[in-house]
């Protein structure tokens, strides 16, 4: 092997990501949401009227995946989609009152996880971790 498995960082990064997603999945179940649905509602709560394409970029998913999430949220009356006043082909997405309540409930639970995670590190360590993770992303995307 060109690189021994115990020197590879990918598994460590994946383990942390899976632990976070598992914990958040459990947390947002209280609001009967998936992590993807919660992410979409959370972004919409801060950016009402966002298009599906912009929402997909903000949630780091494909437009196709976001379309499925939005369809489900709309069927459950957690969002409403209306034509943009100037761009009739673009749909603006807004939270309904039920959507606002769901994201508030889910976020209370998700924030507990984020706080536990943040409390494990000093402010300086959190900044360092963000820098290191950004470097990981750049290294992976560079393809070099």
Automatic annotation (TrEMBL):
This is MarR family transcriptional regulator. The lineage of its organism: Bacteria, Bacillati, Actinomycetota, Actinomycetes, Kitasatosporales. Residues 6-138 form the HTH marR-type domain. InterPro entries: HTH_MarR-typ, WH-like_DNA-bd_sf, WH_DNA-bd_sf. Keywords: DNA-binding, Transcription, Transcription regulation. It comes from Streptomyces gossypii. The keyword Iron does not apply. Coiled coil: none annotated. Transmembrane segments: none annotated.
